[in-house]
Amino acid sequence: MSDTSFVRRFFPEPDPQERRFLGDFFRLETVGGALALLAAAVAVVWANVAGSSYDALREVELGPLDLEHWASEGALTLFFFVAGLELKREFVVGSLRRPADAAVPVVAAVCGVLVPAAVYLLVNLGGETGGWAIPAATDIAFALAVLAVVGSNLPTSLRAFLLTMAVVDDLIVILIIATFYTEEVSWVALGIAALALAAYALGQQRRWRTPLFFVPVALVAWWFTHEAGIHATIAGVALGLLTRVRRDDGEDHSPAEQLEHRLQPISAGVAVPVFALLTAGVPLSGGGDLVREPVVIGVVLGLLVGKPVGVLLGAWSVTRLTHAELNPDLSWRDVFGVAILAGIGFTVSLLVADLAFEDTLLEAAK
What we know:
The protein has about 375 residues and is mainly alpha-helical. About 70% of the residues lie in helices and about 0% in strands. It is built from 15 helices and 4 strands. The protein has helices spanning about 15-50, 50-60, 65-90, 100-125, 140-150, 155-180, 185-205, 210-225, 235-240, 255-280, 290, 295-320, 330-340, 345-355, 360-365, and strands at about 10, 60, 65, 325. The strands form 2 sheets. The protein has a two-stranded parallel ribbon. Helix 1 (about 15-50) crosses helix 2. The radius of gyration is 21 Å and the shape is globular. The N and C termini lie far apart (about 50 Å).
């Protein structure tokens, strides 16, 4: 038997303060996931009953963008800003602040992206390979909502693992979007966005607190990221990661904690459901032809098989290579359940589908 003093625990147990924080977070995600599911159902019914009015709604121009793009590049940017805040909190002051502990969900997330992408490519070899990133993303809102409903007795450490893995997973896919699904980049606009991000970081470092500075700077970063030809959600993630999460002496809450407390209900209860309503509507036509469509088969197998296999392979590899062990209150059956939840693809998967395909292939992928 190995010396347990040298064994690093797999999925570290959060401290009481973090446990309360995660509990509040999961309660919000339950509501947000339910609203997103309802919005998606409404979108599907609407698109099949009155498709022309549904399409007309998405094409309504509101300022510089139509409603569909406000949902995918506006509402979803808020969602990823909150995700970026949570990711930084986990890595800086959370249970994953130690690199050795953070390696487990990060490696699981990486393998959870690579394996389903490989499954899709194998199925579509020589065909429509452009959708390889569709099954690579885990839907944070739905996965956490399901876990909160069916996993109330699971250890908090396992919930923290799913949260971190899902955020890292989607961050990787967002970077994939910026790298592989961006046709042309405006370097001038990108430079302005970078300057805005630098100004935001400087304001955080100088301990400025006024929204009269941060809100305009964040909007400039968001808009010029969009104008650069890069998906605007990248700006949301970057702004979240640049926000200060450590408390100064005398502070009750850090800026990241305050922003997350204020914006999480809006993100989970408004931004994600709006995105679902304006994106998920797709005519359910095609019948048996859809079952034989390689794009459909690749996405389904990628999510149902590739995702669980990838997450389990990544987690198991870390434990084997580093001699880490599961906490006494965890089993590999628990990890397998979380790996299954990682196969819920919705928000970012729909986003990739919109960027990868058009017309009938887009409908098939969705």
